[in-house]
Amino acid sequence: MEILANSVVDRCSSTNDLAKTLAEAGYPHGTWISARVQEAGRGRLGRKWNSTEGNLFLTLIARIKRQDLWSWIPLTTAVGITRALRQTFPDLDICVKWPNDLLLRGAKLGGILCEGSSSSKGTYILIGIGLNCAFTPEGLDQPGIDLTSAQGGKLWTADALRMKVIEAVLDEIDILNLRGKSQVLQGFQDWSAYPIGTRVEWGSSAQQTGIFTGLGHSGELRVKIADGQEIGLFAEDVRVRYSDNIR
Ligand code: BT5
């Protein structure tokens, strides 16, 4: 099947799979592909992404020369989308939950799945974005939310928001490339779902807990653990210890 770059297909397994085909064919930075339905939408660590029609499913190809910036792409994407959504929906207190979640009222509004690869056509990162525009899927194993219901019912579709999201992410990556991490760090500081000083936990054991102290050079979450030592978390699922800490 030929895939038309920068287009919306009716259905596919995952837009990250279609984007991979495009990236392997040499398509440049900024190329995107979106689908109305994903039959095997995925999250991180083998989890599923509910992908029924109405919400946004989108993947962008990023080709970034500076390797030291690659690990910042998930957070840069989250900050860029948050910036755009806050402009469009000034009454909604949309937050970034490190490293890849968009939250609203403590519930999941969107998620980001970045997958990197390298081939004869160069190195690229696939930035997969799922955003609940029109409705919240039923049967999620954690609280979810969508823009339409959060806004009081005026229908917001994927079609209305797709180009805003694409432009916002590409702009934020441009600024990262040109000026470094300061804008992403500022966005994260302003919109993080929990502030520095919050007690967080990760992994399956309640003993894996510490105090969030900031972000490290690679965008990792720095936490101070029981013995006073500071460690970095790179891809763990971090939970806030007390739910009243979440904005
Ligand atoms: C993510 O994973 O949050 C990344 C999701 C990325 C989805 C996009 S859609 C376009 C592109 N193509 C793909 O195949 N994927 C990307 P993670 O942090 O692992 O969160 C997954 C968890 O979120 C699930 O286990 C559920 O608990 C929850 N979840 C699933 N679907 C959801 C939805 N539509 N809204 C809110 N939460 C959801």
Distinctive features:
5 helices; single chain; 29% strand; 247 residues; alpha+beta
Q: How does this structure look, described?
A:
The protein is globular. The chain has 247 residues and is an alpha+beta fold. Helix content is 25%, strand content 29%. It starts with 6 loop residues before the first strand and ends in a 7-residue tail after the last strand. The mean pLDDT is 95. Biotinyl-5-AMP (BT5) is lined by residues 14-16, 38, 41-45, 47, 49-50, 57-59, 100-101, 108, 111-113, 128-130, 132, 137, 140-142, 144.
Rounded to an integer in angstroms, the radius of gyration calculated over CA atoms is 18 Å
Mean pLDDT, as a whole number? 95
* Low-confidence spans: none
Strand percentage, roughly? 25-35%
Distance between the termini: 45 Å
**Strands ordered across the widest β-sheet:** 1-2-3-7-6-5-4
The kinds of small molecule bound in this structure are: biotinyl-5-AMP
Measured as a percent range, the helix fraction is: 25-40%
Oligomer: single chain
User: How many individual β-strands?
Assistant: 12
- The coarse silhouette is globular
The ordered string of helix (H) and strand (E) elements is EHEEHEEEEHHHEEEEE
How many strands, what sense, and barrel or not for the largest sheet? 7 strands, mixed
Q: From the helix content, strand content and strand pairing, which structural class follows?
A: alpha+beta
Structure annotation, total helices:
5
